[in-house]
Amino acid sequence: MTKSQKTAVFGLGSMGYGMAQSLLRAGHETFGFDVVPAQVERFQTEGGAKGSVAETADTWGAALVVVLNAAQTEAVLFGEHGIAPRMQAGAIVIACATVPPSFARDMAERCSALGLSYLDAPISGGSLKAASGELSIMASGPEAAFAGAKPVLDAISQTVFRLGDAPGAGSAMKSVNQLLAGVHIATMAEALTFGMTQGIAPETFVDVISKCAGTSWMLENRAPHIVAGDYTPHSQINIWPKDLGIVLDVAKEAGFSAPITAAALQQYMVAVGMGLGREDDAAIAKVYARNAGLDLPE
């Protein structure tokens, strides 16, 4: 693929929109598609290419699929209006959703049958890094897929971890990452609110712990949201029941017990039940605050 070829992005949410913007900055002719028409229109006003899937799919060199889950990924590729049968042989599918490794292997086989290369390429870094083209990508797939996807990966990422030629390896690594990320956010909220019961203000918690051994990237990134009382969703609570559910499903297949993951998942489920699903995932602190009768910063 060269920069003169065309790229499509499916899913113009907080991650996909930033990735599409990064592609535009890098000189790619980029089509953006989403179930929300306003997102498509917004992207086109910023320089996104115009044209329907039916009109343009056979001209794309690559398609980035940045949707929520496995079901949506399959619908984009092979649903009633699926893009895979419409794309030209030799084109690249770059699948970025968090999915079970077995699903990634199945999609790769089905794409291969149509002459398409499939890159199992889950992403990490959040919406800000998506917009700045500095994501980390955990990727696996055949050499042809890496070679064809390189200009796209260069535009959207700072680091690409090549995890082998077997689809599913990228998704396996993403499961490991999500286990840690989801647990770290929940543990951060637990520690911050525990500190409040001991008279430690949230801003003091951040100032001290961020410079001590108990810190984590998630603590340093999310705890300031709580201090500011700002739960604008950069990453929603709703993501974690799905992602930690995938972790537990994969663990079950492996005969592996993951009790800490299960405990964190229950806290996210409580948060969803409280109506916090669309808030930033730092809002899990509200679960602990409610249970302890604490008032978080506003």
Structure description:
It is a single chain. The protein is of the alpha/beta class and 298 residues long. Helices cover 52% and strands 12% of the residues. It has 13 helices and 8 strands. The protein has helices spanning 14-25, 37-45, 53-56, 70-78, 101-112, 126-132, 143-156, 169-197, 202-209, 217-228, 239-254, 259-273, 285-292; strands spanning 6-10, 29-33, 60-65, 92-95, 117-120, 123-124, 135-139, 157-162. The protein has a 5-stranded parallel β-sheet with strand order 2-1-3-4-5, with helices on both faces. Strands 6-7-8 form a 3-stranded mixed β-sheet. β7, α7 and β8 (157-162) form a beta-alpha-beta unit. The longest helix has 29 residues, at 169-197. The model has no long low-confidence stretch (mean pLDDT 96).
Please give the structural blueprint:
Blueprint: E1 6-10, H1 14-25, E2 29-33, H2 37-45, H3 53-56, E3 60-65, H4 70-78, E4 92-95, H5 101-112, E5 117-120, E6 123-124, H6 126-132, E7 135-139, H7 143-156, E8 157-162, H8 169-197, H9 202-209, H10 217-228, H11 239-254, H12 259-273, H13 285-292
Parallel strand pairs: 1-2, 1-3, 3-4, 4-5, 7-8
Antiparallel strand pairs: 6-7
Query: For the largest beta sheet, what order do the strands appear in spatially?
Result: 2-1-3-4-5
What is the N-to-C succession of helices and strands? EHEHHEHEHEEHEHEHHHHHH
Structural class: alpha/beta
Mean pLDDT: 96
